[in-house]
Specification:
Strand 5, helix 2 and strand 6 (about 90-95) form a beta-alpha-beta unit. The chain has helices at about 50-60, 75-85, 130-135, 150-160, 180-185, 195-205, 210-215, 255-270, 275-290, 300-310, 315-324, and strands spanning about 5, 10-15, 40-45, 65, 70, 90-95, 100-105, 110-115, 140-145, 165-170, 190-195, 220-225, 230, 240. The protein is built from 11 helices and 14 strands. The longest helix has 16 residues, at about 275-290. It is an alpha/beta fold and about 325 residues long.
Length: about 325
């Protein structure tokens, strides 16, 4: 099964300030703020939801096609993804803009000051999925993840026009998108991904009830945090899968992306939806135990031992035949 993952590609620059922002602010001078914080820690990490999901799928051996836009500074990041099983040939390289970047400083009270530079991400709207499909001999599913909003709309419309199955995954872009655009993005999707909060926000913004949305998508996949995931289809009983037991909780960033990577890999393998969700939950557990969205290692024996403990021998044997 050939799956294309569209979505943002970004670098995160995360800094730590040992003091408190509040101590540096003068109440009657807030209209002329000019501050510089001497930080004592800098982490530069690879990110972007499209790249995170594709990385996870690559770790599971399903060779996803990453579709997005980056800058001329993408070379090292591209090499990293290539080494981890991601097809990056359909990434558009901007001639003038840098790869999207999130720069954030966190103080001792965990307050944050951050900026997000969209950069080359804005050129994702110029990518045509037909070109991607022609290059690899067709596409079976396109995940439309959080990206340049115009790109998300264009990719969705092209999928509908060309009868390509697609999965809708608005993620953080749902906050800025009006209801009319959200209706376009989800209507006709084979899969609709969201977390529990986003589920309610989708219903509020579109004006459609849960039942109406289920009538417009193939499956609704809702992640429930520590409670796992629920998969719904109109007229059928929901499928609920719990999380694998975590060994520690280091950083929740990227957990949703990892779940999607595991779930989509299960679809690529042709296993049941329940099994695909179990793979997603197991991969998400590895990510929550690691600082950084692409810093975890998938050691297959270790993965299968923990998967067996969480979901049983029968489920593990089925997954093992695909994982290798």
């Amino acid at each position: 099964m050939r799956i294309a993952v569209t979505g943002s590609i970004a670098n995160d620059h995360l800094m730590t300030f040992p003091g408190r922002f509040a101590d540096q602010l003068v109440a009657d001078q807030l209209h002329t703020v000019s501050l510089s914080f001497l930080v004592d820690k800098l982490d530069v990490r690879r990110g972007g939801v499209g790249a995170n999901i594709a990385f996870g799928m690559g770790q599971l051996g399903t060779r996803p096609v990453l579709v997005g836009a980056a800058g001329a500074d993408f070379g090292e990041y591209r090499a990293w993804l290539d080494r981890h099983g991601v097809d990056t040939e359909s990434v558009r390289i901007s001639e003038t803009l840098h790869t999207a970047r999130f720069v954030c400083t966190t103080d001792a009270d965990h307050n944050q000051i951050g900026s997000f530079y969209t950069g080359a991400m804005s050129e994702a709207r110029l990518i045509e999925l037909k070109t991607v499909a022609d290059r690899i001999g067709g596409l079976d599913l396109v995940l439309i993840g959080a990206d340049d909003p115009e790109a998300m709309l264009r990719h969705t419309e092209e999928c509908k026009t060309r009868s390509l199955a697609f999965a809708a995954d608005f993620s953080q872009q749902i906050a800025r998108m009006p209801g009319e655009e959200i209706r376009i993005l989800l209507d006709g999707a084979a899969y609709l991904f969201s977390n529990e909060y986003e589920k309610g926000l989708i219903e509020t913004k579109t004006g459609w009830s849960d039942e109406e949305i289920l009538g417009r998508v193939g499956h609704r996949v809702t992640t429930l945090g520590a409670r796992g995931v629920r998969i719904e289809r109109a007229g059928e009983d929901p499928i609920e899968v719990g999380c694998a037991e975590e060994e520690r909780k280091a950083d929740p960033t990227g957990v949703g992306d990892a779940f999607r990577a595991g779930f989509l890999s299960g679809l690529a393998w042709g296993v049941s939806l329940e099994r695909a969700a179990q793979v997603g939950c197991m991969l998400a557990t590895l990510v929550i135990e690691t600082v950084g969205t692409q810093e975890y290692q998938l050691r297959r024996a270790h993965f299968m031992d923990r998967f067996t403990k969480a979901y049983g021998h029968e489920a593990a044997e089925e997954v093992r035949t695909h994982l290798g």
